[in-house]
């Protein structure tokens, strides 16, 4: 599809933002293509999704500055909403998303990575919210998600100064979970996706919902939400088979078998 490639590999998928000549910057067309791909994911087959950028230099170098340069206030707001609506689809998708950040993750690039569940990066990655240097605020969720991920003090410093940070600093402040040599990043991302995809999908999805929705609730309500989601896993084929397999193993290690979870 136009500016976004989509590849399904057994039970996980790879989305590649592919506008390499503009460092994979997000213009309206790229956002439209991304939305179509996200909407088309078959959650019966795909149990984890990796998002990365085409080429070796850039994950996503932000929203398209040329396109934004002539927007009116109303158009600016609606461009912000366009990106936000798509990034919320990623964030609230039942399927876990992994950002494999392979270079520049600036502005909207840092923001799309933060709408994913997990971020891992190559050693040449560069993160930042440079918007105030362009006369705007982050507009695809950056003020909200960066503050939630690294804390308000660090987020304010990064956003107010528009300073970019390298992968090792992103790791230190908890913006990414791991950093790999560039040539190993995709293999590591696929290993992670495959591990997640090998676990019981109903349970993994319930965990995503519990963590995401629970973080916005007072603790008593958050715990009640977890109880509901925990309960919802029972009586599923996967719960019965997952537990039966453990009990067989205890009984006789020779009976260990790989559980092929069925998402039911
Ligand atoms: N928008 C449009 N084009 C871009 C962008 C971008 N964000 N980033 C790079 N490009 C283009 C360049 O213009 C250049 O095009 P051309 O070859 O036609 O001249 C091409 O990509 C290659 O870029 P460079 O020659 O600059 O490559 P370098 O390796 O020298 O530098 C950088 C790479 C560091 C990534 C540099 O291009 C850069 O600083 N880019 C801008 C990064 C930036 O400021 N991003 C934040 C944008 S603002 C944003 O994302 C707000 C999100 C919320 C929007 C809300 C809506 C209202």
Overview of the molecule:
The protein has 264 residues and is of the alpha/beta class. It folds into two domains: 4-197, 2-enoyl-CoA Hydratase, Chain A, domain 1 (Alpha-Beta Complex); 201-255, Lyase 2-enoyl-coa Hydratase, Chain  A, domain 2, CATH 1.10.12.10. It is 48% helix and 16% strand. The chain contains eleven helices and ten strands. It has helices at 28-40, 65-68, 73-92, 108-115, 142-150, 152-161, 167-172, 185-198, 201-214, 219-232, 237-251; strands at 4-9, 12-17, 49-53, 58-60, 97-101, 104-106, 118-122, 126-128, 165-166, 178-180. The strands form two sheets. It has a six-stranded mixed beta sheet with strand order 1-2-3-5-7-10, sandwiched between helices. α1 (28-40) links the parallel β2 and β3 (49-53). α5 (142-150) crosses α6. The longest helix is centred in the N-terminal third of the chain and has 20 residues, at 73-92. It is globular. Bound molecules: octanoyl-coenzyme A.
Helices and strands, with pairings:
Layout lengths: L3 E6 L2 E6 L10 H13 L8 E5 L4 E3 L4 H4 L4 H20 L4 E5 L2 E3 L1 H8 L2 E5 L3 E3 L13 H9 L1 H10 L3 E2 H6 L5 E3 L4 H14 L2 H14 L4 H14 L4 H15 L13
Parallel strand pairs: 2-3, 3-5, 4-6, 5-7, 6-8, 7-10
Antiparallel strand pairs: 1-2, 8-9
Bound molecules: octanoyl-coenzyme A.
- Whole-number radius of gyration? 20 Å
Low-confidence stretches: none
Strand order of the largest sheet: 1-2-3-5-7-10
The number of strands is 10
| Total domain count | 2
Which features characterize this protein?
2 domains; 10 strands; 6-stranded mixed β-sheet; Lyase 2-enoyl-coa Hydratase, Chain  A, domain 2; 4-stranded mixed β-sheet; binds octanoyl-coenzyme A; 2-enoyl-CoA Hydratase, Chain A, domain 1; 264 residues; alpha/beta; 16% strand
């Amino acid at each position: 599809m136009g500016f976004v490639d989509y590849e399904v590999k057994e039970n996980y998928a790879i989305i590649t933002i592919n506008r390499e000549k503009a460092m994979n910057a997000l213009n309206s067309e790229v956002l439209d293509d991304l939305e179509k791909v996200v909407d088309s994911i078959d959650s019966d087959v795909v149990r984890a999704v990796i998002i990365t950028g085409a080429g070796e230099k850039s994950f996503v170098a932000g929203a398209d500055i040329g396109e934004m340069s002539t927007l009116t206030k109303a158009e600016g707001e609606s461009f912000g909403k366009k990106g936000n609506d798509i990034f919320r689809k990623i964030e609230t998708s039942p399927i876990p998303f992994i950002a494999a950040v392979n270079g520049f993750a600036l502005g909207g690039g840092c923001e799309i990575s933060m709408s994913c569940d997990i971020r891992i990066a190559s050693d040449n990655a560069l993160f930042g919210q440079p918007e105030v240097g362009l006369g705007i605020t982050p507009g695809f969720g950056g003020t909200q998600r960066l503050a939630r991920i690294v804390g308000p003090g660090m987020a304010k410093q990064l956003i107010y100064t528009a300073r970019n940070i390298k992968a090792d600093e992103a790791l230190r402040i908890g913006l990414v979970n791991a950093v790999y040599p560039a040539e190993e990043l995709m293999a590591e991302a696929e290993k992670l996706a495959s591990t997640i995809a090998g676990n019981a999908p109903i349970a993994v999805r319930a965990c995503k919902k519990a963590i995401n929705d629970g973080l916005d609730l007072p603790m008593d309500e958050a715990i009640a939400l977890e109880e509901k989601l925990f309960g919802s896993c029972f009586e599923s084929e996967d719960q019965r088979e997952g537990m039966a397999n453990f009990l067989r193993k205890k009984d006789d290690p020779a009976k260990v078998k790989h559980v092929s979870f069925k998402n039911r």
